[in-house]
Amino acid sequence: MGRRFFPILAFGVLTFAIPLLILPSETGNVPLLPVGNLTQGMQEKSENPAKKQEQAKPAEEGKTENSEPYNTSNVIGLEDGGFDLLDNSTGKVIHVTAQEYVRGSLAAEMPPNFHPEALKAQAVAAHTYALYCKEHSQEEYDLEVDTENWKTYTTEELFRKRYGKLADAYWETIREAADEVKDLVLVYQQEPIIAAYHSMSSGITEDAENVWLAGKPYLVPVESPGDKLAPDYETQESFTADQVSQAVREAYPDIELDSDPSSWIQVVERSEGGYASAVQVGDLRIHGQELRTLLGLRSSNFQVEWKGGKFLFTVKGYGHGVGLSQYGADYMGRQGSTFDEILTHYYPGVTLAAISPI
User: Fold this and answer.
1) Could you state, in order of their start, the residue ranges of all structural domains in the chain?
2) pLDDT classification of 250: cutoffs 50, 70, 90
3) Alpha carbons 279 and 79: distance in angstroms, whole number
4) CB atoms within 10 A of CB 253
């Protein structure tokens, strides 16, 4: 046992060398449905968003007392002339203005009836991340998106098609939140941060170092109690021994699994937030994020037991757990926190800066 340890070091290095890798596809990808009907993941084919939205009503909390423009004395000089996006839906590179990007990213990444302060926090995070990508990209484009599948960015046209008769009200909510903070970014040492975000944590966000083996002082664990109140915070998935064997052997053909499946999987190390950072699978030790990917689990915060001839995984949260929790942000907004308070909570040590064109 313990023959080899694969901590996905190459992935960790590439994550911070190539910014596009920092956000796995499910990151921020909460379904755009009414809060009470949210299920997790755009891959949920059993859900019918069009049918759900027919019964929905725009949130009553469309306005907040704190709706005045945010003022900051911190100014950062940046070229913010828009973004070149590789749209994986079409394979083409499209150019959008900064305003279009912030609106379209917010529309794709957070339900329009989340609290307005959470929407503004998400808009700032998305804008900041795009600027970071633009400054560090070595490609002919700044970052990758998938407009048709609502990953990272979508268009107003697709948004209106999805929401039908609710589109006018919902788009106005998105537009107001995005435009109010369109000139604000998060900076650390006067540089845009890697503004990672996810759907919901386990109740404590994760240290980036435990996910990508390359930490940042502002991507560290913080309390996020609202996540525990989110729909589908805790879920269960089961797998047969054959399913697990096939999944791990495809990735590691030489792995040795003995005849007793109950001994195949053991979590041997966890992070502060409870995420599995080291898992013994047969004679191989891998990172919890790797097993999560192999089995398609919602997060790497899981308990596993052999029960009734199957592996039963009890999973908490959704996403990698690093940075802003979207459900946590919504909860904080509903408790009275402003968008800047939400951001500085989830990214400790950062400051908000106004963009000044260079």
Assistant:
1) 31-195+323-357
2) very high
3) 44
4) 7
Closest CA to 177 of 66, 57, 27: 66
On the question of pLDDT at 258 being above 80, the answer is yes
Q: Which two tokens stand for residue 58?
A: 């725009």
Residue whose C-alpha is closest to residue 330's, from 177, 207, 219: 177
Place of tokens 């021994």: 241
Amino acid at 51: K
Question: Under DSSP, is residue 36 helix (H, G, I), strand (E, B) or coil?
Answer: helix
Report the predicted TM-score, pTM, of the whole model to 2 decimal places: 0.82
How far is 299 from 27, CA to CA, in rounded Å?
A: 11
Residue at token pair 């309390």: 223
Closest CA to 267 of 302, 239, 240: 302
pLDDT in tens, 183-234: 999 999 999 999 999 999 999 999 999 998 789 999 999 999 999 999 999 9
